[in-house]
Write a structure and sequence with these properties.
Largest sheet: 6 strands, mixed
Helix content: 25-40%
Shape: globular
Bound molecules: 2-acetamido-2-deoxy-beta-D-glucopyranose, zinc ion
Number of domains: 2
Distance between the termini: 36 Å
Strand order of the largest sheet: 4-3-2-1-14-15
Strand content: 15-25%
CATH class of the largest domain: Alpha Beta
Oligomer: single chain
Number of strands: 24
Structural class: alpha/beta
Radius of gyration: 25 Å
Number of helices: 17
CATH superfamily of the largest domain: Metallo-dependent phosphatases
CATH architecture of the largest domain: 4-Layer Sandwich
């Protein structure tokens, strides 16, 4: 699958568009020395509370999206990770207490998820051979009383994952797991293939306090789905008879969940189709997919909320609904919570000792057991410092008071994970047991090979799967002259910088599910806006700083943003020194083979390179090299 993608996708970030298939490569299991899973249930460092209480309405919604397996929360002590240290057990306790508060107030509280349960941490991707990504982790997810869930694109990269959702997960929420425009093909009752919705197309239900709801679960125009799954375009969906019938009757409000960004995507198609029939009915939109915090009002009687990623954000949306046929603006309130026990306890008025519910503790215990059974604490070595992808990462532990300025780690620098990966990790790992190790080489990879920052402290199987999960291999072409080989990287990166092509490419990638450019643009924007000034004032802690287009301030805890640095699409190891005609091995990740051959043939005319000139360089795959390096250098 990956090789056909690489022809299509000319980008570094393209690997984000293929599912992470951790397939149980574990050559090191025999050497395993066991470590108990980190039993984090309480933050190991003091955290400051939110800025102000939540504003409750008649209708309130707690929103999660793009959780990607981060159910054990962010457990590293480096900041800002502790801000997101709440695990799914803590979240379950939070939801229980919030439900009690809602009941006391006599208001409705709904729980909504906007998809992307797969791909992201060891809990999802670390499944044993023969397993299915997220199958086990989802058993904890479904312990929560979600009212509506929508399917995400990461549920569709691999047919077995979609089938698992269809057969095992969706039935846990009868009628409430929504896939309005997404089908799966399965064997029908008489053996012939039938295409059916993965969950339900829509839901109609009454809230606890009797409000009538019509809900949808819409996926953006995703094109990277596996065979035997179907994604219908949003504008075609709103044209369907079932859709028109579903929205015909007027509910008290529409609840539009969906794996689609609230801004710069196709929500207006759905919104306008409803507004054409119901000009004033309140509409709540709960979006996702671009991993950012965002809020938009399409009119005065609706609000659209997007609640980040990786359990780094829990969204809260509330409104006071007025009488039917009113045309006045509705007062909405939205908040982006940092998911940690301090936040949860603050908003539920609970203390450390009255916070945990039985269910919450069971979930935490079960998740830790799952981590143990996947051997996620298997220790490769101990990282001496933090390494970041874009400096979206901690300061030193001493800086947790927020008074130290964060360190700066652009690429290339010693704190950059990209620098570590290409200049040290890959060269060291690929030299292991390699008969060509003595021959000078240049190694080229795409920066999208890395998914998450790497933090100081124990480097485990979970960290390996989180930071670099892709099962790509390393190839080489022998006897390339140094003069030609050293021009390959700049040419690859220049091709990526061509503006028109890069716009087209971005669209293509976006269709395939790549959201990194949007997420990074968001980080860059918050830093550029006033990052330097806010950090210099030294009275704010670090974290997300959201500026959306809804009224008032959305962030629950006020932060200063971290510095942001971009990175090139392609990375190279440090070239050997020598004359231009020195012959070397040109080593590269298989993912970029087509582009690399194209560039090589453009740079010289002595030989036309083809697939047949490409040889295997090492048996080790990209999802193993960090572990190999850590075992060798970090012990
Ligand atoms: C977030 O992290 C900062 C350090 O950057 C810390 O000082 C602060 O207490 C944390 N905030 C919350 C709400 O956990
Ligand atoms: C098999 O079942 C499908 C749907 O369940 C139906 O459309 C089709 O006509 C059936 N085919 C036969 C040969 O009975
Ligand atoms: C799609 O599913 C049908 C029915 O299960 C199966 O016969 C067919 O081989 C599948 N197609 C592919 C490409 O796997
Ligand atoms: C989805 O499934 C429904 C029910 O079987 C079917 O009517 C519809 O045509 C399918 N839609 C797509 C886009 O495949
Ligand atoms: C919507 O339906 C009409 C009539 O069936 C059709 O002409 C039109 O092409 C459809 N539009 C889309 C976007 O599918
Ligand atoms: C109602 O809300 C809309 C959209 O947010 C805004 O443009 C409009 O000015 C508001 N009207 C009033 C009367 O506040
Ligand atoms: C709302 O308007 C509709 C149509 O104009 C009318 O039939 C209905 O009685 C009105 N409902 C209320 C509560 O005013
Ligand atoms: C909360 O309670 C746990 C368990 O009793 C304890 O380990 C932890 O230190 C307490 N944390 C705080 C901040 O009191
Ligand atoms: C970066 O790391 C290299 C190798 O470990 C070291 O020689 C160099 O001094 C470091 N540079 C800085 C600025 O710390
Ligand atoms: C390298 O080869 C040695 C000897 O065959 C073997 O014991 C060792 O496990 C190999 N190292 C790795 C990382 O595979
Ligand atoms: C590379 O060059 C060496 C000598 O320069 C030659 O012996 C070898 O066969 C060449 N290898 C290939 C794959 O062309
Ligand atoms: C932080 O300091 C700046 C500059 O001194 C000041 O304008 C701002 O109000 C302070 N913010 C907080 C939250 O104390
Ligand atoms: Zn996602
Ligand atoms: Zn997504």
């Amino acid at each position: 699958m990956k090789s056909t993608f690489s022809a299509l996708l000319a980008s570094a970030f393209a690997v984000y568009s293929v599912a992470a298939c951790a397939d149980g490569h574990d050559d090191h299991a025999s050497e395993a020395h066991m470590h108990l899973p980190q039993k984090r249930a309480y933050p190991s460092v003091p955290l400051t509370p939110p800025s102000r209480p939540l504003v409750w309405g008649d209708v309130n919604i707690i929103h999660t999206t793009d959780s990607h397996g981060w159910l054990l929360g962010h457990q590293k002590p480096s900041f800002p990770e502790p801000n997101y240290s709440g695990d799914f057990g803590d979240f379950a306790s939070f939801v229980s207490h919030m439900k009690e508060i809602a009941l006391e107030k006599g208001v409705d509280l709904l729980l909504v998820d906007s998809g992307d349960l797969h791909d992201g941490t060891g809990l999802t991707d670390g499944y044993p051979a023969g397993g299915v990504d997220a199958h086990d982790a989802n058993k904890f997810f479904d312990k929560l009383p979600y009212d509506v869930l929508a399917i995400g694109n990461h549920e569709l990269y691999d047919y077995p994952n979609t089938l698992d959702i269809y057969e095992n997960f969706a039935p846990k929420y009868p009628g409430r797991y929504l896939s309005s425009n997404v089908n799966i093909t399965v064997a029908g009752p008489n053996g012939t293939a039938v295409s059916v919705p993965v969950g339900s197309r829509f839901a109609k239900f009454h809230t606890l306090f009797g409000r009538k709801v019509t809900a949808l679960g819409v996926l953006y125009d995703f094109t990277g789905n596996d065979h035997n799954t179907t994604v219908q375009k949003v504008e075609a969906m709103v044209n369907e008879t079932w859709f028109k019938e579903a929205i015909a009757e007027e509910p008290d409000f529409f609840l539009l969940a969906g794996h689609m960004p609230v801004y710069k995507d196709k929500w207006p198609f759905v919104f306008n189709a409803i507004r054409a029939v119901h000009p004033t009915t309140p509409i709540f939109i709960l979006g996702g997919h671009t991993h950012i915090r965002d809020c938009v009002q399409l009119d005065g009687r609706s609000m659209s909320l997007e609640s980040g990623r990786y359990m780094e954000t829990v969204g809260f949306l509330s409104a006071n609904l007025d009488h039917k046929n009113s045309t006045a603006n509705i007062t909405f309130n939205r908040r982006y919570l940092d998911p940690n026990r301090v936040t949860y306890e603050y908003h539920t008025g609970r203390g450390n000792h009255s916070f945990d519910t039985w269910l919450g503790q069971e979930i935490t215990r079960g998740l830790n057991e799952l981590a143990e059974s996947y051997d996620l604490s298997y220790l490769y070595g101990t990282a001496p410092q933090d390494y970041s992808l874009s400096r979206w990462v901690s300061t030193s532990p001493e800086a947790r008071t927020g008074t130290d300025s964060p360190s700066s780690d652009p690429y290339p620098s010693n704190g950059s994970l990209l620098t570590l990966f290409i200049e040290q990790v890959i060269p060291v790992a690929l030299a292991i047991n390699n008969t060509r190790a003595a021959i000078p080489n240049i190694i080229i990879t795409n920066s999208g090979e890395l998914r998450f920052d790497l933090y100081k402290g124990p480097f485990t199987k979970n960290d390996q799967l989180t930071a670099s999960p892709f099962t790509d291999s390393f190839l080489y072409i022998p006897n390339v002259t140094l003069g030609v080989a050293s021009k390959v990287l700049p040419t690859l990166n220049k091709a990526g910088a061509n503006e028109k092509r890069s716009l087209e490419r971005e669209e293509e990638l976006y269709g395939r599910g790549v959201v990194d450019m949007r997420y990074r643009a968001w980080l860059e924007e918050m830093d550029r806006r006033d990052g330097e000034v806010k950090r210099a004032a030294q009275n704010l802690t670090l974290g997300y700083v959201t500026q959306d287009s809804c009224p008032g301030v959305g962030d629950d805890t006020v932060h200063a943003p971290l510095p942001y640095y971009g990175s090139p699409d392609f990375l190279s190891s440090i070239p050997p020194t020598g004359a231009d005609d020195t012959v070397i091995d040109l080593v590269f990740i298989n993912f970029i083979q087509d582009q690399l051959l194209g560039v090589l043939n453009g740079l010289q005319s002595e030989k036309v390179y083809a697939d047949s000139d490409v040889l295997s360089y090492s048996p080790f795959l990209a999802d193993e090299v960090l572990g190999l390096f850590a075992a060798e250098k970090w012990n």
